[in-house]
Amino acid sequence: MATVRDVAARVGVSVSTVSRALTMPHMVNAATRAKVLAAAEELGYQPNIAARGLRSGVTNNIGLVIPDIENPYFAAVTKGVQDRARTAGFAVFVADSDEDPRLEEAVVSSIAKQVDGLILASPRADEERVIAATGGKPTVVLNRRFERTPSLLIDNAGGIDQALDHLRALGHRRIAYAAGPAASWSGSERIREVRRYAEAHEDVEIVELGNFRPYVTGGYQAADLAVAAEATALFAYNDLVAIGALERLRNRGIDVPGDMSVVGFDNVSFAELTYPTLTTVDIPLRALGKRGVDALTRHVAGDDAASGDMISSVELRIRQSTAPPADH
Amino acid sequence: MATVRDVAARVGVSVSTVSRALTMPHMVNAATRAKVLAAAEELGYQPNIAARGLRSGVTNNIGLVIPDIENPYFAAVTKGVQDRARTAGFAVFVADSDEDPRLEEAVVSSIAKQVDGLILASPRADEERVIAATGGKPTVVLNRRFERTPSLLIDNAGGIDQALDHLRALGHRRIAYAAGPAASWSGSERIREVRRYAEAHEDVEIVELGNFRPYVTGGYQAADLAVAAEATALFAYNDLVAIGALERLRNRGIDVPGDMSVVGFDNVSFAELTYPTLTTVDIPLRALGKRGVDALTRHVAGDDAASGDMISSVELRIRQSTAPPADH
DNA sequence: ATGAAAGCGCTAACAG
DNA sequence: CTGTTAGCGCTTTCAT
Questions:
Q1: Which nucleotides of C are covered by protein (CB under 7 A)?
Q2: Which residue of A has its CA nearest to B62?
Q3: 0.85 exceeded by the pTM?
Q4: A156-284, CATH topology level
Q5: Which CATH class is domain B4-47?
Q6: pLDDT for B85-139, tens place per residue?
Q7: Architecture of the A59-154+285-312 domain
Q8: Bridge-based pairing state of the strands A279-282 and A315-317
C-alpha cells in the first residue's frame, strides 16, 4: 500500500531518489540510501511491479505454457522452472493448454503482455501462430524444434539407441513399437529414429503397432497388439503407455518380463513404483526446466549465443521389466 | 503492440471512446462500438493488463500457492484452478513453495501485488504470517482451516469413517494407522478422527505406527511396522505412503490383500495403476480447485456469503488392496 | 454519447 | 548526487 511518495515524504527526499536507491543503489549517496532503505522497511514498502513494468518494460515475470500439468512429465519440468525462476527473481505464470492447440495460442497471448519472456513446453500449436501470439516476446521452446526460436531438445536418437541396443543385447529379435500421436513432434522424431535403427540393424525386426494417445489406455491397446504380433518385447514411446501395457499384460496373465519385456521413455516418477518396475529412458526433466529459464534469461538479455539449440543427454534406466526372451 | 491510441486514430474517435467500447459496451453508440471493435480486431489489439490494473485496481490475475507441483495431489488441484480460471478470464501465477513455510511466505508476498486474489493450497506456514504476506488481498484457503479466511475443506471425518467401516466390515480387528507429519493440518485432523473412531468402536483396535513423511519412503517404514505390530490391515493417511507400503510388502513377499489389506487416502491418479490397485478415499481434487476459484471470485466481488467454510464430500473407492483377513 | 484531461505508481530523461 | 518533469497504457471523472 505504501508507495514511493510515502517513502520519499518520510525521508524528505524526492521520489526519484527513492526509486534510484532501490533500483540503482550505487547512484545515490550512501547515507541517504540507508535512510531510504530504512524508511521503506518501516513502511513495509513493496514496489508495484505492474507500474514498474509499465514504465521500464521489465516485469520480472515469465510465462510457462504446458499441455497438461497433471502429466508427471510436465509437472517435473514445471518444478524445475519454478525452482530456477524463484532464485532468479522471477514470478511465473503457468498456463495449461489442455493439449489443445487453439487454447494454447489463446493462453499465450493472454499472458504474453505481462511477462519478460515465455517458455513453451512441448507446444502443440503451429509454430507461426503461436509465435505470433507471443507478440515478439523472447521465447524458448522445450522439447520441440522451432525454425526461428531457440529450442532445448533432448537426445531422442540416443535414447532410442540405448533402449533398442539393450533389448537386442538381451536377445530380442522381434520388437513391437508403440508410437505416439502423429501430431506430436517428439513422437514423430522418435519413430523416425526407430526406423533408422531398424534399417541399421538387420538382425532385429521392428513391428510398428500404430499411433497411441499418451495415456495408459493407449497402453492397453498396444499390449494386445504386441501379443498378437508375437513380439517378445514392447517399446513404448512414453512411460504412460508402457505402464498401461504393464497393467494390461498382467491382467491377461502374461508375465513381464518372462513372456514380454517392456521399455518406456521419460522415466516419470512413477516408473519405479510399477510392478514390475519399468525399464525406461531417463530424461533430466527438472534440469530441462531450469535450463529453459537460463536460456530465457540470456535471451532476454539479448545474448545471441542463446539462439542455438541445446540437446540434453538421456540415459537408459534398466529395471525389472526387461529380460532375455523366453526361448533363450 | 497496438494501443488504444492506435485504435482510436484508426476509427477517428477519442481513446476514451475506445476504452468504453471495450469495457462498458452499453455506454457507447452501437455504430461506433462496432467500428471500434472491428478496428481493434484488425490491428490485433490486446489491452495491456498491467496498465489497466494500474488504473482500475483490477488485474484479472490470481495467484495459486502450492507446496509441491510434482505431488499429483496438487497437480490435480492446479488443473482445476487452471480450468476454471481460464474460463473466468483470469491468468494464474503458480508458486511452488517446496514444502517450506518460509519460502511460502516469500512467494506469497512476491506475487500478491500482481493479483486480485490468492488461493493457498494446504499452506504450511503460520496463519498470521502468511496472511500478512498477502497484503490484505482476498484469499481462499484449500484443505486447511484458517481463523479469519474462507476455507474449502474436505470431509476428512467422513473419509476416515468410510475407510475404517470398510475394513471393519471385512472383519479386520487390528488395524495399523500410518499418520502424516505432525505439522500437517489435514494430517492432524485425520489422526484425531481415527482416534475418535477407535473410541466409538470398541471391537476394533487401532495401532498408531507414528508419523511419516508424505512420500513412498514413508510407506516402506510403515509397512514393516504394521507387519511387526501384527495388524491385518494398514491404513495410510495418504496414497503415496500407501503405495510405498504396497511396494515394500510385495518385496517382502507379503501378499496384499491376502496377508495384509492396505487403504490409502486421496485417490491420486496413480492409485488405480498400482499392483494390486489401491482401495482409497477419493477427494474431488479438480473440483476443489474450481471451487477455490469460484469462492475467490465471490470474495473479490465482496460477497460475504463466501466467508464461511465449505466442505466437499469424499467417497471410498474399493479396489484390490483390501479383502477379509486371512483367518476369516 | 463523446472528448479532454487527470492520474494509477513507477522510472528515465534532463537539469541542476 | 539530487530534484523536476514527462509519460508508460489505460480508465475515469468532468465537461460538453
A1: 1-5, 7-13
A2: A93
A3: yes
A4: Rossmann fold (3.40.50)
A5: mainly alpha
A6: 999 999 999 999 999 999 999 999 889 989 999 999 999 999 999 999 998 899 9
A7: 3-Layer(aba) Sandwich (3.40)
A8: antiparallel
